[in-house]
Amino acid sequence: MTGDGLLTQRRLSLVDLLDRLLAGGVVVAGDLTLRIADVDLVRIDLHALISSIDERVPAPWEEAGA
Question: What is this structure's pTM?
């Protein structure tokens, strides 16, 4: 089998890729600094966990009717 054959067998749709990522969870982290003349004007730190929620992992917010 050639290398091209392996690539055609491994193609995923975007929905399948998102499903796999959310099943395991995704961590997004980044820093953004707006600086003019060596003076920091705005700094944004981003740390997020994106994951699917089911019965085994409760939602972090309260249920409306509970």
Answer: 0.40
Query: How far apart are alpha carbons 38 and 50 in whole angstroms?
Result: 34
The single-letter DSSP state of residue 30 is E
Q: What is the pLDDT of residue 35?
A: 93
Nearest to 46 by CA among 26, 27, 18: 27
CB 26 within 8 A of CB 50: yes
Average pLDDT for the chain: 75
- 3-state helix, strand, coil split of the chain in percent (to 5) is 25, 35, 40
Please give the Cα distance from 12 to 18 (Å, whole number): 10
Q: Token digits for 35?
A: 């600086």
Q: Environment class of residue 18 by beta-carbon count within 10 Å: exposed (0-12), middle (13-18) or buried (19+)?
A: middle
